[in-house]
Specification:
The complex is a heterodimer of chains A (286) and B (448). With 286 residues, chain A is of the alpha/beta class. Chain A contains nine helices and 17 strands. In chain A, the strands form four sheets. Chain A has a seven-stranded mixed β-sheet with strand order 12-11-10-9-13-14-17, sandwiched between helices. In chain A, strands 5-6-2-1-7 form a five-stranded antiparallel β-sheet. In chain A, a hairpin with a 2-residue loop joins strand 1 and strand 2. Chain B is α/β, with parallel strands linked by helices. Chain B folds into three domains: 113 residues, Alpha-helical ferredoxin (Fumarate Reductase Iron-sulfur Protein, Chain B, domain 2, Orthogonal Bundle), CATH 1.10.1060; 161 residues, FAD/NAD(P)-binding domain; 150 residues, FAD/NAD(P)-binding domain (3-Layer(bba) Sandwich). Chain B contains 19 helices and 16 strands. The N and C termini of chain B lie far apart (51 Å). Classes of the chains: A alpha/beta (286), B alpha/beta (448). At the A-B interface, strand 8, helix 8 and helix 9 of A face strand 5 and helix 14 of B.
């Protein structure tokens, strides 16, 4: 079997959250903020989209949470292992320009999308505020990295174990009340993006969210990732993944994300059983 | 030879037609009267010397027949299976006027299958010219142009965005019509001519437009893509698919074999497929093989369907229920899931611009079809991604690249063919346009 895309570094960042650096020159050389890649682990694998979190030389970084079979299987790969297919960068890059003050909000593993957006916004001359939120302190990722590139960083945890006790939306609301914010990016679970973007609507601040519907090809061919934005059907893979948050039909997005819930469970159980039989239950990431 | 019984074949994805035996092929070839001015050739978009290859078959010289075929067509096993011969070569065959035309498609397939079994012989390639040509897309048009350009001695690189080559041959046409190993083998023959294939490369994203335009010549064959939706309420319910998505999940990703393969697909109990083309037939027959009761909903009459006659017949044999002169108006759902398709019956009035009767809804004829899945196979638009990124590339209102009869675009060294130029068409029409463009590219590169 010809395996082409090598895992250069695999690190566990938090419970069920992993950071992988994968060698994929054609992706790394062209990746821009807001874009994603699609990977397929092996001949029987599915194609899953993951946001490009950072780039270094010919390698790209992805950060993911193990939720389904493919992410669990991906998390078993170690440095030196290979991934059969990596395609990208896909999707439109973020609309970067000199806006003034920008706020980039990340929720949970969505924080992974922030560095490239922040870097490009900074390079365009913006004052960039980062807000990162997670359920608890141990699930917060990339804090140091974001402190290094943002002008200001605010932290929230649902349980109050670190930073502001509450949600990113609370901090964002407070900031909006205090000063002028010209553009907002929000990346996280659909429900978090829905709630958080609700905060910016009354202020009329243009807000982008990065949508994560189910995809197959990721190149505009199948229509699996269709979302309703401003009453129109859009394909997240080629028209997005970033859209005007205030136009997005989040209820429909969340409903379509659940299409294969039943099958995903079957696949996951089958994988867990296989892992048990092979005696691979242990966590080697340390 | 012939078709496997419908009740057997709906249980698997094996090929429907089992093909000719050598004896049958020779007997069929002997019927050919070897016309001095063969009309069949004029009916062939890639200009195969049909009498010549059939003559070799009649002589039992299958190797010679394969050589004659591959003079013009590097994908004969594919074309023999999926071309609409009844409107092309076989439709033009003079024997068809009084009796049955020669079964040219079946003979083409026989020869190609024989060669694949017996050992493939590659056609000769010209001496290297040192010219570099980029082909974007590895579907029928891309493969055909790549083969012709490689044979002319140019260094050809194909860029493919997916993880497999073949385009619609791989993701679109199901295995019971076009087996995967047949497609792979013919793609391998093209690659064996020295063509480089770069998979997972989406030009415009993974390869910059500047890099693309830096080649001595460029052939755009990015295909159709962008599935059309009817624009009726309920289209985004879970359980509503474009035919592209449904077929891609099954053909490319093998979702029918889930959970052995990781990609899932919904299994409808009662499925409505909307459309009357080959893609609609393919989607309906795939859903049938996955165990569904399938309704094919088409707004005109059966005789107006653009699908190949053989596919319509096969679909009916396999128990697909046709609801013609019927148009869907709304998809009904609850909790995101589909439970019905509201339709209206259509009356057929005056002929429209396409020469087909234009359908009008009959007031009061509304009814609801009890289905839990809907597949829309109403066509695709040109994939806009790359072509919209190339500055100065002129496109028509519908988004397809404007070309002359030789595939020339508004940019001197950029050519286009297949669905991105012509709009949705057949495999063989895409190949024909690719051959003309390849000839023009070759001419341009020789003049330099």
């Amino acid at each position: 079997m010809k395996r082409l895309y090598k895992v250069e570094l695999a690190t566990k960042l938090a419970d069920r959250v992993y950071e992988y650096w994968i060698s994929a020159p054609q992706v790394a050389q062209h990746a821009r903020a807001g874009q994603f890649l699609i990977l397929r682990l092996h001949e029987k694998g599915e194609r899953i989209p993951l946001t490009i979190s950072a780039v270094r030389g010919d390698a790209v970084r992805v950060i993911f949470m193990t939720v389904g079979k493919t992410t669990q299987e991906l998390a078993t790969l170690r440095a030196g292992d290979s991934i059969m297919d990596v395609a990208g960068p896909l999707g439109k890059p973020s609309e970067i320009a000199s806006y003034g003050t920008c706020c980039v909000v990340g929720g949970g593993v969505g924080i992974a999308s922030m560095p490239l957006i922040v870097e490009e916004l900074k390079a365009a001359g913006n004052h960039v505020i980062g807000i990162i939120g997670a359920r608890s302190a141990d699930l917060l990722i990339l804090e140091d990295e974001l402190r290094g590139i943002c002008d200001e960083v605010y932290i929230t945890t649902d349980d109050g174990s670190k930073g502001v006790h509450g949600f990113a939306a609370d901090v964002l609301k407070k900031l909006l009340g205090e000063r002028t914010i010209d553009r907002v990016w929000i990346i996280g679970p659909a429900i978090m993006m829905k709630v958080t973007s609700g905060v910016t609507a009354p202020y009329g601040v243009k807000t982008y969210v990065s949508l994560n519907p189910i995809m197959v090809d990721g190149t505009g061919m199948c229509g699996s990732c269709r979302v309703t934005v401003g009453g129109e059907t859009k394909f997240a893979c080629v028209d997005g993944p970033e859209f005007d948050a205030h136009q997005v039909d989040f209820a429909e997005l969340m409903q379509r994300q659940r299409i294969y819930t039943g099958q995903e469970k079957v696949s996951l159980e089958r994988f867990a059983e296989h892992q048990c039989r092979c005696g691979e239950g242990g966590d080697h990431h340390g | 030879m012939g078709d496997r019984p419908a009740d057997i074949r709906i249980r698997d994805f094996e090929e429907v037609d089992t093909g000719l035996s050598p004896g049958e092929a020779i007997a069929e070839a002997e019927r050919c009267i070897q016309c001095k001015k063969p009309l069949c050739v004029t009916g062939c978009p890639v200009c195969i010397d049909i009498p010549a290859f059939i003559h070799k078959v009649a002589e039992g010289d299958f190797r010679g027949a394969a050589r004659a075929l591959k003079e013009q067509n590097m994908l004969p096993a594919i074309c023999g299976r999926v071309c609409p011969q009844e409107t092309q070569c076989e439709g033009a065959c003079v024997l068809g006027i009084k009796a049955t035309p020669i079964r040219i498609g079946a003979l083409e397939r026989f020869v190609a299958d024989w060669e694949r079994q017996d050992g493939v012989e590659l056609p000769k390639t010209a001496r290297p010219t040192g010219k570099r040509v980029a082909v974007v897309g590895s579907g029928p048009a891309g493969l055909t142009a790549a083969a012709d350009l490689a044979r002319a001695g140019h260094t050809v690189t194909i860029f493919e965005s997916l993880h497999e080559a073949g385009g619609v041959l791989t993701y679109g046409i199901p295995a019971f019509r076009l087996p995967e190993d047949v497609v792979r083998a013919e793609i391998d023959q093209v690659l064996d001519l020295g063509v480089r294939l770069k998979k997972n490369h989406l030009v415009g994203r993974s390869v910059s437009v500047d890099e693309l335009l830096g080649y001595d010549a460029v052939f755009l064959a990015t295909g159709a893509g962008l599935p059309a939706f009817m624009g009726i309420p309920g289209e985004n319910y879970n359980g509503v698919y474009s035919a592209n998505e449904f077929l891609t999940r099954v053909n490319l990703m093998h979702a029918d074999a889930f959970p052995e393969f990781d990609t899932p697909v919904l299994h409808g109990g009662r499925v409505a497929v909307i459309g009357g083309g080959n893609v609609a037939m393919d989607a309906a027959r795939v859903a049938r093989r996955m165990g569904a009761k399938v309704f094919l909903v088409y707004r005109r009459r059966e005789e107006d369907m653009p699908a190949r006659k053989a596919e319509v017949l096969h679909a009916k044999e396999e128990g697909i229920e046709f609801l013609t002169c019927t148009n869907p108006t709304r998809i009904l759902g609850e909790g995101g899931c589909v439970f019905g398709l509201e339709c209206v019956e259509m009356s057929l009035c005056d002929l429209d611009a396409s020469g087909r009767p234009s359908p009008e809804p009959i007031p009061g004829s509304e009814f609801t079809l009890d289905v839990d899945m809907v597949i829309q196979a109403i066509g695709t638009g040109p994939n806009p991604l790359l072509v919209s990124l190339i500055p100065g590339l002129e496109r028509a209102r519908r988004g397809n690249v404007i070309v002359d009869e030789n595939g020339r675009t508004s940019i001197p060294h950029v050519y286009a063919g297949g669905d991105i130029a012509t709009g949705a068409a057949t495999v063989i029409e895409a190949m024909g346009s690719a051959k003309r463009a390849a000839a023009a590219i070759n001419e341009m590169l020789s003049e330099e």
